[in-house]
What does this fold into?
Amino acid sequence: MNDCTSVEPSVKNVKFTDDTTVIGLIRDHDKSAYRRKDDQTEDGTITKDLKWDCNISLIIKKAQQRMYFLRQLRKFNLSQELMIQFYTSTMESVITTSITVWGSSGTKQDTHRLQRIISSAEKTTGVKLLTLLDLHTSRTRRHADKIITDPSHPSHHLFLRLPTVWHFSQMRIKTTRLQRSFFPHAITLTNS
It folds into this structure.
């Protein structure tokens, strides 16, 4: 089955450059046709067991496809500045897709796989690039700052300032999964 078709007449797929949107008509609260397609779709979402493997594998695949073009640019003796611009706009943007969500929850193996792509890009461009950890930290801090400065943000209340110091109150957490999620990690980074 092609990734742009559906066997169900009430489920339509719209294919964009890097993503697919699934549109389904739900009648009488019957979601079975849509669910069948949804279960088959690997569109970079979290899996049912709350792991990010599928998402990270998709990111790696997209980054490796773009790595080919970066190597072609080097082969054609393009300037280092233009290769870095290509890397930033095409590869780094893919690598950092939703990094604030999955960045602190990924496994060491996934992190290593993504860092290898960045290292390959470094060798190709001849320039030291930001590591995956640096990218994750900068994006998380930037996202946290936006939430902190916007009182109308739905999550603004999670960033509570302590009265005596210029730090934020840590969340009370009972599970490792929650500890490795965005908000506790963002509070820790903001306090450091």
